[in-house]
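REVIEWER CHECKLIST
Item 1: Sequence provided? yes
Item 2: Single chain? yes
Item 3: Sequence as submitted:
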Amino acid sequence: MMNIYHITYSPSPKVVCLHFWGCNLDCRACLLKKEIYDCHLKETKDAIFDPEKIAPSAPDRFLTLDEVMDAVRGLKKVRYVILMGAEASLDPGLPNLVKLLHEEFDSHNILLTNGMKMISLRDIDEVVFSIKALNDRLHRDYTGKSNRQALKNFVSMHKLGIKMNAESILIPEYIDFDEIERIARFIGGIDKNIPYRIDAYLPVQNNPWRRPGRDEIMMAVKRAGKYLKNVSFIAGDEKLTFGSIRIV
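Item 4: Structure as written out by the authors:
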């Protein structure tokens, strides 16, 4: 049995999303505390904006490797496979899965990770690395753990030559402009060409923080842009550019 509990597919870009359960961090703003299924689906897209919504504590079923591969085989065309979470790197079956995906579909395999665990990237084509905070005290407060190993792993992954992206959440008066700028400076010190995306915080449970305005997001982008050549953002009010369907 794998840690995969949910599979979605976007026909237009031919993207398969494999959702993994289980994490080695306890992020206070994790959207899985609001909705454990893909928020791009019609039935779930509004859940992350519903202050009354509380996600189930766990999925009701998990898939075997054969079930995952059969589900992907049932799709017309697969160009990209996104391995997302919680945290996909914790699944011991991940290396074999991405190997099979490469062999059978020649897919571009993208790992979304917090970087706390260094794994073999042999059949991973791209990494999207979530940097929660650069300040270790702040990282501990937000996630429950130190970020030292994750930052070392970020450097190690870059040295391997794999295509890398980074992302962070802007939380006003908490993980704020100054912290976002420090993260950008850290990334730029390694490679100014690494794309960096800044996401707006969306209220989760009883956290005391507010959602940032678009002007605040743009300020964070401007400050990060002093160190990086490619900075983008998600404000949370964008319209979906393509639809997703639930496979499992």
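Item 5: Key structural point noted by reviewer: The CA atoms of residues 200 and 221 lie 11 Å apart.
Item 6: Recommendation: ____
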